[in-house]
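G., before I forget:
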Amino acid sequence: MAGQPSAASPPAESTSHGLRVVLAWLILSAVATPLVAIYVGPLIPPGNASTQATEQVFDNTWMLAVITPVICFLVVFFAYALLSFRAAPGGVVDGPPLRNDSRVQVLWMIATGLIVLFLAGFGTYELLQNGAGGGQGPDPIAVPSGQKFQVQVIGQQWQFTYRYPSLGGLESNQLVLPAHTYIELNVTSLDAVHSFWAYELGVKADANPGVNNVAYVQTKDPTTFHVRCAELCGLWHPYMFNNGRVVDTSQFQKWATQQEHLYASIKPFMDKSESDGGAPYSKTYFPQPDRRAG
Amino acid sequence: MRVGVKLLLVAVAVMAAGVVIGFYVSNLTTLAGSPTYSVPVHNVDGHKVVNLELQTVAAVGPKLSPNPDWVSYLIKDQSGQWKRETVWDLPAHATVHVTIYNFDGASGLRNPYLARPQGMVGNRIMVDGKPTDAIDPNDASHTFAVPALGLILAIPGVADDAKNPCGYAPCAMSNAHRTIKFTFHTTTPGHFRWQCFVPCAAGWVYGFGGPMQTIGYMDGFLNVKA
């Protein structure tokens, strides 16, 4: 843009366009970036119900802060171009010829390259901390240290059920988790591909038949959260949701005792081998109720 | 025609198409495939009581469906006729007595946990007159489940060697069948889907196509109204 003759302005004036745009951009960015980071960032989902959710809000705030100056630049440049390079009233006059400016190109490549590299490094670092609530497959590489409470998530057309290996393989249609505990979620499916999405906990992991997809989440204070299937899985996919609860330890024990009592009637059938129609606790299942189906 | 007018017309056409598609998808995912049946409500000591009589059949037959070999639920209407209607209006805060006559054989449950009756009064069902709090998952022929209400029960199947099995529906009581009874309570008004969890669609991949994915056969809604 510098040094280019304009149909609306003489060449001597046009040399200050770049400087004006940069100044306006710097001022707008200096004002907007902290405002966005401080006031908009914390409003970004998923919230503060788990360590992973809090970290995701932090990550999203950072990314938003990084892209705010980029957006400011686009807005300033667009607005400045609209205002300064308008065609003069009167006849239609061809604009000045566009010429290459290697300084702008190099600057653009360096700036965007640095931003992308920063975000890649930042994202990788955050992912490697504890998996960021995402499914890591059967052999997770970002395993948090310390003890973890295992819960299995089983997807089926069209309901999630949950098993607790530490409670004798107890299965329930309610997801109840102890507060202030690291949870290891083992996500699998009995039929089609589903996706377990515990929204407020910041957990999302695909449920694939025959695969144990491991995700980690550290609960905080007691709360409730929504569970949805995030993979189009058939007729009742939009209805495949329920609520989960994070409760304190004593409430969890009480709930577990109640569930064990209810589970007692079905336990003998569950403990049978798979070939006998049972489902003893396992990381994956291969049910074969195919007497009629092909 | 001016460019602005053309753009406006295109925008209006796109919006209209979006609305039409939205209505179509909404209808498809809610009530399509089955008309709504308003179940008669009785008042007993000021409390609303509903009796639901259902059949589960292996083949719905040509009289009731263009897909005669599909498995299906049927409901008995006030005149005693069996209808293939799986969207039912029920009153809120009512007691619902359900009787299911199952004329179909067993397919087995994919998840045996679902063989434990839950969500109904006493968390148990009556199977051929006997109270039951779990059936053998291998013997499950179908389930009746309303996940949002926490209601689920497995329905045991007719023995493979039973005499006088039913062919095409509607089936007569003289045909071999199992009788399942239970009671549950409706809650606040809402739109609750119900479904079968047994992969019972013969001839479909993993038993979960056709009638399992089509409202009006093994799926439906409870429209609980104030």
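The beta strands of chain A are 149-156, 159-164, 170-172, 175-178, 182-189, 194-198, 203-207, 213-218, 223-229, 241-247. The first strand of chain A starts at residue 149 and ends at 156.

More on Monday.
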